[in-house]
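Please check these two lines:
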Amino acid sequence: MVTKNNVNEIAYGIMGCAIEVNKFLGPGLLESVYQECMINELKRRGYNLEIEQNVPLYYKGDKISNKLRLDLIVNDLVIVELKAVEALNPIFTSQILTYMKLAQKPKGLLINFNSKNIVSGSLTFVNEFFASLPE
C-alpha cells in the first residue's frame, strides 16, 4: 500500500540524488546534462524510472495528438521536472501541477540546477492524490 510517508521518502531520495549531481557538476550546464546524470544517479540508487514519458491528453472526451513529455517519473509516484534556468518562472509551477493532475501522480519536484543551493532552488508540490493517501 502506498502511503504519504512512502511518497515523501522517495522525494527525499530524489533530492539526495539532485544534491549529489549538483555537488559533482555545479551550475551552468545544459538541462540535458543534468537529466542524464540524474537518471544515472537514480538508477545507481535503485529507483525505477520512466524517462520522457508521454502523458495522453483528452479534450472533452477526445484524445488529442499533441503529447506532453514528463522529464522523469520515479517509482510511478513522483514527477520530476528538471530545469537549468536563471530563475524559476511561475509558468513552471503551473506546468508541473498540470502534469501531476493529468498523470494522476501525488507529488512533483521542480529542480533547478542553475543554483548554488539545489534545495533552495527547488520546489515540491502535492495535490489531491497525495491528500487521499494514508499516512
